[in-house]
Amino acid sequence: MTQQTDPREGSKAKWRALTAIVVFGAVLGGLYLWQNDEFYLWAKAFHIVAVISWMAGLLYMPRLFIYHTDAEPGSKQSETFKVMEKRLMSVIMRPAMIITWLLGLYLAWSMYGFQGGWLHAKIALVVLMSGYNDYLAKAVRVFAADGPRKSARHWRFLNEVPTLLMIAIVILVVVKPF
């Protein structure tokens, strides 16, 4: 039985993720050519799927950091967390964020012409969420290098950030208050 912390498994995961992204792009391209009149609906559906995937990672990563903080640097447990964090960031979160942005910008342009205060506020909040994602990516690198760790309390506090941003974004999209 192959250990999931084996570097070969990580390489396979990266190739599977890359293949999935290429297939996803091909499916979107095919839908654009085949269902051009209804492509907006397909783009919206895939945008929502990408947002859900990205949010899952944004909510899970700080939990991993909380447990990783308690693991002794260099221990088997710490090394396992490093693999989990790296794969979560590179195989799920980063691709989901990119797809979210690409489809979101397409939707903002095609449906709203980048007009509306609610849309500008939503984009600003998504920029903040992307900054939060980058902060987590930096933390993944710090943990991987056994660098100085923030406290578990820090990560518990930061675990609330994506939830608050998500609530505000959903309200802006659904209610369009301004």
Topology:
Layout: H1 7-34, H2 39-70, H3 76-112, H4 117-144, H5 152-158, H6 161-175
Helix pairs in contact: 1-3, 2-3, 2-4, 2-5, 3-4, 4-6
In terms of DSSP E residues, the strand content is under 5%
What is the C-alpha radius of gyration, as a whole number of Å? Answer: 18 Å
Total of DSSP H or I helical runs spanning 4+ residues = 6
Number of extended strands: 0
The biggest sheet, with number of strands, parallel, antiparallel or mixed sense and barrel status, is:
none
Low-confidence stretches: none
User: Span from first to last CA?
Assistant: 57 Å
Structural class label = mainly alpha
Overall morphology: flat
Average pLDDT over all residues: 92
Order of helices and strands: HHHHHH
What helical percentage do the residues reach? over 70%
Give a nutshell description of this structure.
With 178 residues, the protein is mostly helical. It has 6 helices and no strands.
Structure, explained:
This protein is mostly helical. It has helices at residues 7-34, 39-70, 76-112, 117-144, 152-158, 161-175. The relative contact order is 0.12.
